[in-house]
């Protein structure tokens, strides 16, 4: 029996830590740390790109992409601008000043696979209408021109993943392999997260695919928006997700938001 409430987990780091406990999922988890000057310095030196984002919140707001250049300068791609900083202390202040009420996290950056010069990632939509989790939808989210964030609220556009792969001349065999991994990530992740938080009913996994076709979990949404599916010509997935969402919300008494 499902509990009569709809549970959400606002902190990205909490969800990441739960998934890290699963050895089958661990290889898909990116290095993710709460922001500090020490963590910022270590991660910029360790990785080609580091992403900062609010620990709580979605929609691609206040997300930026950092690179440490050979001359010691730090370049940040924020919205459609490239900002240049001399040291990590200035970078740290810039990030935390974006929203003083929210804590930020740092995440190892991924060079996303692109289509026509625009990066894209993948959304997996999981729903638990009754007693079992089901993967209801998969869609590729393409970033708008001159942006690196793929969210619909930032101008991202949805397209069927198999259609996108065909346009990029990626083989049907490779598509089936990646689709199988997406199903595994969705079901294993949903199981582990709902074992810890039993009131979870919907999950949106955002998955990166890099130039080598390796997968990484960017983040997990526990109250996912699904408007990106409405952009598809075939409305089958959107209709089912929307109908399931109504059934779920009709079956609960309140939303329980974890601290």
Q: What key phrases describe this protein's structure?
A:
alpha+beta, six-stranded antiparallel beta sheet, 259 residues, 7 helices, 14 strands, D-amino Acid Aminotransferase, Chain A, domain 1
Characterise this structure.
The protein is α+β, with helices and mostly antiparallel strands and 259 residues long. The protein folds into 2 domains: 5-30 and 111-257, 2-Layer Sandwich (D-amino Acid Aminotransferase, Chain A, domain 1); 32-108, no CATH class. The protein is 31% helix and 29% strand. The protein has 7 helices and 14 strands. Strands 2-7-3-4-5-6 form a 6-stranded antiparallel sheet, with helices on both faces. Strands 8, 9, 10, 11, 12 and 13 form a 6-stranded antiparallel sheet that branches. A hairpin with a 2-residue loop joins β5 and β6 (81-85). The protein is globular and about 55 Å long. The two termini are 24 Å apart.
